[in-house]
Amino acid sequence: MIKIAVTGAAGRMGGRIITAIKEAQGMELAGACERPGHEMIGQDAGLIAGCGESGVAICGSLEEALKSADVLIDFTFPEVTLANLKVCADLGKTIVIGSTGFTPEQRKEAERYAAKIPVVLAPNMSVGVNACFKLLKEAAQILGDGFDVEIVELHHNKKKDSPSGTAVRMGEVVAEALGRDYNQVANYHREGMCGERTKEEIGMQTVRGGDIVGEHTVYFIGMGERIEISHRAMSRDMFARGAVRAAGWLAGKPAGMYDMQDVLGLK
Ligand SMILES: NC(=O)C1=CN([C@@H]2O[C@H](COP(=O)(O)OP(=O)(O)OC[C@H]3O[C@@H](n4cnc5c(N)ncnc54)[C@H](OP(=O)(O)O)[C@@H]3O)[C@@H](O)[C@H]2O)C=CC1
Ligand SMILES: O=C(O)C1=N[C@H](C(=O)O)C[C@H](O)C1
């Protein structure tokens, strides 16, 4: 039995992850944690998630939530995740990270902790998006420099980071396949007399509104034709199932930084 603790237990993803743990074979919810002072502290994590009583109360201390857990699943915010990663590294627990919006420096800090413990960090835990990463690499290699690349992502109005972690990874995959440096060619903003589009740039556009779970489209736009590779998330459940699958996959792995491509055997 793999014993899992969940941070952000009362959040949008936290509830779906707690439900996915309940539905998975060989997995058990061992702890649940929220920000100290959160109104849900003391409540049953399963009841808050809407999947029935779990016998696990949401607590305000990660150390307490991890007491009888092997692995932590963390979908919160970069600053919170890095603090939680430090606790896991100190206690020798493994961790699955779904948070997005890391700066390059924060990403490096996460990699330093991964020298001590096995870590899965991925901006998108769905099978479909990870298949798209492979398709995008192949499309970019086939189409080369003759097609302009533009990426558009849509999310709900509560999302804090922009562009999404998934859109950034899509940009990185395409840039690498085209021999470009994503950080040099990503164009996040066009306004006024900004001039003609350069051949190398990858346009990154963001839409926020309502309850959109998450949609990503990469456009390869040529002369007289256009290819669109799109993924639409219809619920958060496959992200949650992916995170639980990653938690199981990590058991017995050596310390290091892994992603969903490793978990799904897509490398
Ligand atoms: N990798 C993937 O497949 C996916 C990644 N994500 C990413 O996951 C992250 C969370 O998304 P979402 O669930 O929508 O966000 P939510 O804001 O709904 O959830 C985050 C939760 O973390 C809580 N929290 C804040 N501080 C702490 C703390 N110190 N300890 C424990 N919990 C804390 C928040 O509490 P409070 O609200 O009170 O601050 C909130 O309940 C985002 O970065 C998002 O981009 C989302 C979906 C899929
Ligand atoms: O915040 C979200 O909701 C999501 N975030 C992830 C991202 O930033 O890529 C993944 C998914 O699209 C939902």
From TrEMBL:
UniProt xrefs under NCBIfam families: dapB
Location of the Dihydrodipicolinate reductase N-terminal domain: 2-125
GO molecular function: 4-hydroxy-tetrahydrodipicolinate reductase; NAD binding; NADP binding; oxidoreductase activity, acting on CH or CH2 groups, NAD or NADP as acceptor
The protein's assembly and partners: Homotetramer.
Protein name per the record: 4-hydroxy-tetrahydrodipicolinate reductase
GO CC terms, sorted: cytosol
Listed Pfam families: DapB_C (PF05173), DapB_N (PF01113)
Subcellular locations according to the entry: Cytoplasm
Gene assigned in the entry: dapB
GO biological process: diaminopimelate biosynthetic process; lysine biosynthetic process via diaminopimelate
Family that this chain belongs to: Belongs to the DapB family.
Reaction it catalyzes: (S)-2,3,4,5-tetrahydrodipicolinate + NAD(+) + H2O = (2S,4S)-4-hydroxy-2,3,4,5-tetrahydrodipicolinate + NADH + H(+); (S)-2,3,4,5-tetrahydrodipicolinate + NADP(+) + H2O = (2S,4S)-4-hydroxy-2,3,4,5-tetrahydrodipicolinate + NADPH + H(+)
Top-level EC class: oxidoreductase
Entry keyword set: Amino-acid biosynthesis, Cytoplasm, Diaminopimelate biosynthesis, Lysine biosynthesis, NAD, NADP, Oxidoreductase
Listed InterPro entries: DapB_C, DapB_N, DapB_N_CS, DHDPR_bac, NAD(P)-bd_dom_sf
EC number of the protein: 1.17.1.8
Binding annotation for (S)-2,3,4,5-tetrahydrodipicolinate: H156, G165, T166
Binding positions for NADP(+) per the UniProt entry: R35
Domain named Dihydrodipicolinate reductase C-terminal: residues: 128-264
Active site: H155, K159
Role: Catalyzes the conversion of 4-hydroxy-tetrahydrodipicolinate (HTPA) to tetrahydrodipicolinate.
Annotated HAMAP family: DapB
